[in-house]
Amino acid sequence: MRGAPHAEAEALQNTSDARGATLYVSLEPCVERTLGPPCAPALRAAGIARVVVGALDPNPTNAGRGVALLREAGVEVELAEDARARALVEDFSVSIAAERPYVRLKLAASLDGYVAPQPGSHWLTGDAARAYVRELRVAHDAVMVGAGTVRVDDPQLIVRPPYTRRTPYRRIVVCEDAPVPADSKIFAPVAGYAPTLALAPRGLRERFEPLAAVAELLFAGDDDARTLDLVAALRELKRVGITSVLCEGGPTLAARLLEHGHGSEWPCMNAHPWDALPGEWVPPWMVQRVTSTPAAHWV
Predict the structure, then answer these.
(1) What is this structure's pTM?
(2) Cβ proximity of 95 and 262 under 8 Å
(3) Are 56 and 79 in contact (CB under 8 A)?
(4) CATH assignment of the domain containing 113
(5) How do residues 211-259 score in pLDDT, each as one tens digit?
(6) Residues 200 and 239 in one domain
């Protein structure tokens, strides 16, 4: 959580005497922090003898400086530069380097390209896929869908069963040029969840004002924008402290993210064609682009 003690500080708080100890960390201890004390000086002061670092800090403010400070203080530092350690901080790395959060685009599709089940069926995939999605929701700062998904499916976008964590969950609805109904389930107050964010064009403030009573409105784009600038909207999300987003939107939002290259990873879940038809179809170019990228993987 932003401003909370880092793992190194908590480890020191949970031990009575760290002198001569070895510390294992996935990410290089920081030298500077905007909120809270930095970690590397605290480790030096605590008398830690050896630190094994999984990966260097991707933040240019700290990159390499934590390792250098510890070594100068006589602490033995082993730098693994391990791929698994880098994977653990991938969302942080992307959000630091880019002007947007880390975006994971979740897609469920039939083998012939449909993303919605046939009438009368609520699910396209099975229990294992739904359990995996719940884990993804827990791992991200926010879950995001488009206005079309809210109007058609009216989802709550909550984690079931409930899972307590330090950072309140955030739900986001992306509105192109018109608000969604204020009584949508996504706006219902839920314990452990921050108010839902509604992304909207900056030039349509008055049109979206009815949502102010149930959501936190976040406007993006130029002052005269009449449709949502998705690139600007992602920048706004990062500005308010959201560093990772799980997008569970439909084909329209997914296509826009892919068009701008704003997906960092694409978990793809497939189903047999007869589980989907007739439904909502995804253009072949979109399926091909998702499944051909190195960031895509089938689950």
Answers:
(1) 0.77
(2) no
(3) yes
(4) 3.40.430.10
(5) 999 999 999 999 999 999 999 999 999 999 998 999 988 888 888 888 8
(6) yes
